[in-house]
Amino acid sequence: MNIELFVQLLVNGVIVGMLYGVVAMCFVLIYKSTQVVNFAQGEFVVLGAWVCLSMVINMGLPFWAAFIFTLVFMMAFGVLVQVVLLRPLVGEPIISIIMATIGLSIFMQALMNWIWGNNAVRFPDVFASGSVSIGGLNVETAYLMSLVLSLIVMALFFWFFRFSRWGLAMRATAYNQQVAQSLGVSVGQVFAMAWAISAIVSGIAGVVIGLVSAVSNSLAIIGIKVFPAVIVGGLDSIVGAIVGGLTIGLLENMAEFADGQYLHWGNMYQVAPFYVLIVILMIRPYGLFGTPDIERV
Amino acid sequence: MHVRVLASREPRKEGRGREGELTPDEPLLEVRDVSLRFGGVRALSNVSFAVRKGEVFSIIGPNGAGKTSMLNCISGRYRPSEGDILYKGASLMRRSINDRARLGIGRTFQNLALFGHMSVLDNILVGRHHMMKNNVVTGMAYWVGGARREELKERRRVEEIIDFLEIAHVRGEPAGTLSYGLRKRVELARAMAIEPDLILLDEPMAGMNLEEKEDMARYIIALSEEFGMTTMMIEHDMGVVMDLSDRVIVLDFGRRIAGGTPAEVLADEHVKKAYLGEEDEVLDALAAAEMEGA
What we know:
Chain A contains eleven helices and two strands; from the N terminus they run ααααββααααααα. Chain A has helices at 3-34, 41-57, 63-86, 94-116, 141-163, 165-175, 177-182, 187-212, 222-233, 238-263, 268-283; strands at residues 131-134, 137-140. Chain B contains eleven helices and ten strands. Chain B is globular and about 60 Å long. The interface between A and B is medium-sized, with 24 and 36 residues.
């Protein structure tokens, strides 16, 4: 057994898995509070990466300034999408709203192709050194940053939902809009906030992914990859999204290892998460951490 | 089936509410000729009444008489097809549900509507949401902007309500796991948390045993006498209604058929007939009209 490759893929799995977890959280946040399945999730991620990249390359901003600009831009974009596209659809059948997000995804793909082209572009070196040594193990700085940022985002998410008043309002709205309204919660504000936060965090994930690999429109595939993560964890569970993301990230890389070393079936990397998705759906349709309805008769 | 569970109340001389813009004679809530139609079904037809500040006002009537529809028109869930609803002298018609909550109209629901997976404390804290001054932006700067201090202050207010309703022992439990009577109390606590001037209670006693009813009755009296709220209640238990209410109106087939003090309503011919099922030409005409409309 090739131990070095195994460890390498294990580390890869954790780092990629954390990123899946972060993107899955964005997805869950929107589903949980607005009941909308956002098929444009992947495009949100890519948009964040492109915006940051063009601020660095075209505007010549330092990386940190470009990063902050990206966050502000994504917040505005998230609110814009909610107000312009989704608010008029409130009360329409859920399938219409899903169609609208699919439309949004196609529109954003086309727009980004038009503005930034179809090629992959690498970030210029933003870190002083390409890698740091931790306990004898060389870790790329970008990977380390990815890990740290993911953890920070997760902690903030947890705190926000558990302890802040807006998180509470969001949970209440997710549970029952009518009742939340009758307690003075403005559902419009809560929805706009959910989209804003989701877009901001997607933007962070996009920049991180852009740093780790390169920025291209094909990165939007992550929007599809988070589906198994979200289903594994449960559509309405933030913790589940993280566990689901880690599971899928590890699974991909372990499948790659098993496939490359022993099985030689090819493409297990791509397929394995979806096998797991199917199995989970058969055993626990509401996901590992999702809430089955409490029903009292 | 008249369960006399309560000490009868003296009719109140004057509401002891918080200072408002109202003159003593002006009603807190005035419903003017409200009609509500769902397609061909008339849920409410030209209903009018006024609720005075500080009183306990009840709506009674048989099942399907339009009581909950009336409550939903006031809380904003339904928009009346005709008529107007005035609160503190201003029309509510163009206000959203959450606006109305902010203006001081709180409510409970007929079928319990607690946030089942959230703790009792969190359920009640949701009601405090709009009272907190911090907005989205300052809220994000939680630790520096005073949002934390504000939240602690809010918790103290919530604890007062919890003590009053005697639910301290379950404050950390998920609301969905509590017994029926306790959940009803938590729902009342949540409605009280928005510090309403007008609190709408949709069947606060339904499904309760005698002891639970006595407790709830005590709380309802205290809503106006201690907290200065005006209570508007829908309730099926006639004993409760007659003992607690300052004034009562009776709905049948979406129309107001009687109104006044409990004694006046009990003596009313139409009411007797609506409840006891005797022949009554007015009610028969209403029923006939209903059949045609449907």
